[in-house]
Amino acid sequence: MKKYNILFLCTHNSARSVLGEAIASTHQSGRFVGFSAGSTPGTKVNPFAAELAKDMGYPEENLRSKSWDEYGRPDAPQMDFIITVCDNAAGEVCPFWPGKPATAHWGYPDPSQVQGTDDEKRRAFKEVMVGLRKRMDILAAMPLEKLDAMTIQSELKKLAEVK
């Protein structure tokens, strides 16, 4: 079975995109290798995102904030899918992605901006995680190897409407 590389983008690569990377990489289907990056990466991964990623079984040593420039290099893994998960990153001019991957915007509110107790913050991160997992489950159920590039692109964008 082919494994699909999927890159999640968000401006600071500290929360939503990191959750996407962990969800894709630990998905029960085994069909994806997740990556994440940002246009202006932060210095560290948000502790609530890191906690959820580790709970999924994602290796702690893989949790780091990365620049999307890493994935535009000739020696970088070629992506099959690129998903922006924050509105800022969706509006930015992205690097050239070799191989013409399918792209889509799956926007989520920034959970790191939630004010309140730690439980309220955790709840906001879990909501993003649940939404991303639901979309990944639908993507994993698709017969991707049988679909042409235009159909995949269309289906990936339709997943943005899944709540």
Automatic annotation (TrEMBL):
Keyword Transport: no
CDD domains from the UniProt entry: LMWP_ArsC
Domain (Phosphotyrosine protein phosphatase I) ranges: 4-142
Assigned keywords, A-Z: Arsenical resistance
UniProt key word Oxidoreductase: no
Name of one Pfam family that matches: LMWPc
InterPro entries: Ptyr_pPase (IPR023485), Ptyr_pPase_sf (IPR036196)
SUPFAM superfamilies (UniProt xref): Phosphotyrosine protein phosphatases I
GO terms for biological process, alphabetical: response to arsenic-containing substance
PANTHER family: ARSENATE REDUCTASE (PTHR43428)
This protein's name: Protein-tyrosine-phosphatase
The organism of origin for this protein: Polynucleobacter cosmopolitanus
Upper taxonomic lineage: Bacteria, Pseudomonadati, Pseudomonadota, Betaproteobacteria, Burkholderiales
